[in-house]
From TrEMBL:
The gene is bdhA. The keyword Transmembrane does not apply. InterPro entries: 3-OHbutyrate_DH, NAD(P)-bd_dom_sf, Sc_DH/Rdtase_CS, SDR, SDR_fam. GO terms for biological process: monocarboxylic acid metabolic process. It is an enzyme of class 1 (oxidoreductase). It comes from Arenibacter algicola. This is D-beta-hydroxybutyrate dehydrogenase.
Length: 256
C-alpha cells in the first residue's frame, strides 16, 4: 500500500520540494496551495513520478476548511499517514507599526492551522497506529530577530505544540517533529528581502549579506532539497523514536 502525505503550501517553494521528494518515494500526495496553476503543478508531479495526486485550495484561516481538507484527503486516498504543516506567510515591521490584521493572519496561518490540521488527523492516525506529523517551523522558532514579532511568536508556538503532540502521540506510534530552516531562497524570502530593505534602508544585496546571512556560519541559503530530505527521514517507519525534536537546518545560526 502506498502511503499518503498531505503537505500544506505545496505548490511552490519548500512545500513543492517536499512533495517532489515524497513522490519519488511513491507517496500519494494531497497538494495544497493558492497558485493559479496549482492543478497543473500537482498533475505534472503525479504524472512524472506515477503517483496519485489531488489538490485543495482550502483556507487555512478557517478551522472548518482545515477539517474538510483532512476529511477530503482521507476520502480520496483512503488514509493519511504523513501530515506536513508547511504553509506560512510573513510580514516585517517594527512593532509600533505592525498592523493587527497582519499579526492575526500570521498567527492564523503559521500556528493555528497547525493545531487545526493535527487535531483533525489525530483519530485517523490513532486508528491506523501510525502517524508522522512534520511541522515546518523556522530558526525563528529557536531565535528572534527584529521586526518579526508575529512570525517569531507563531514559530515558537509551533515548536511548543510539536512537543505536546509528541508526548500525546507516543502510545499510538504517532511522532511529531519540527524542522527549523534558516533562510531559504523561496518566493516568501524574496518578498522578505524587499521588506527588509525598506525597514533597514538598505539595498537588497546588503540585506542578504548583513541581515539574512549575517548570523549563519555557512554563508549560503539553505536548500529546499535539504529540508525535503529531512522531512522524508522523519516520515520513515524506522523514525518511530524520533519525536518531539526540533531540527535546525540553519547553517550554524543556532550554534552561536
Amino acid at each position: 500500500m502506498n502511503k499518503t502525505v498531505l503537505i500544506t503550501g505545496s505548490t511552490s517553494g519548500i512545500g513543492l520540494a517536499i512533495a517532489i521528494q515524497f513522490a519519488k518515494e511513491g507517496y500519494q500526495i494531497m497538494f495544497h496551495g493558492l497558485e493559479p496553476n496549482g492543478q497543473d503543478i500537482a498533475k505534472e508531479v503525479g504524472e512524472r513520478y506515477k503517483v496519485k495526486v489531488a489538490i485543495s485550495n482550502a483556507n487555512l484561516l478557517s478551522s472548518e476548511d482545515v477539517e474538510n481538507l483532512i476529511a477530503q484527503t482521507i476520502g480520496i486516498f483512503g488514509h493519511l499517514h504523513v501530515l506536513v504543516n508547511n504553509a506560512g506567510i510573513q510580514y516585517v515591521s517594527p512593532i509600533e507599526d505592525f498592523p493587527n490584521s497582519k499579526y492575526e493572519n500570521i498567527i492564523g496561518i503559521n500556528m493555528n492551522a497547525v493545531f487545526y490540521a493535527s487535531k483533525a488527523v489525530w483519530n485517523q492516525m490513532k486508528r491506523q497506529q501510525f502517524g508522522r506529523i512534520i511541522n515546518i517551523s523556522s530558526v525563528h522558532g529557536l531565535r528572534a530577530s527584529e521586526f518579526k514579532s508575529a512570525y517569531v511568536a507563531a514559530k515558537h508556538g509551533v515548536i511548543g505544540l510539536t512537543k505536546v503532540l509528541a508526548l500525546e502521540g507516543a502510545p499510538f506510534n504517532i511522532t511529531c517533529n519540527a524542522i527549523c530552516p534558516g533562510y531559504v531562497k523561496t518566493p516568501l524570502v524574496e518578498g522578505q528581502i524587499i521588506d527588509q530593505a525598506k525597514a533597514h534602508k538598505m539595498t537588497k544585496e546588503e540585506v542578504i549579506e548583513k541581515v539574512m546571512l549575517k548570523k549563519q556560519a555557512v554563508k549560503q541559503f539553505v536548500s529546499v532539497e535539504a529540508i525535503a530530505d529531512m522531512a522524508l527521514l522523519l516520515a520513515k517507519d524506522t523514525s518511530s523514536t524520533i519525536t518531539g525534536t526540533s531540527f535546525a537546518l540553519d547553517g550554524g545560526w543556532s550554534a552561536q
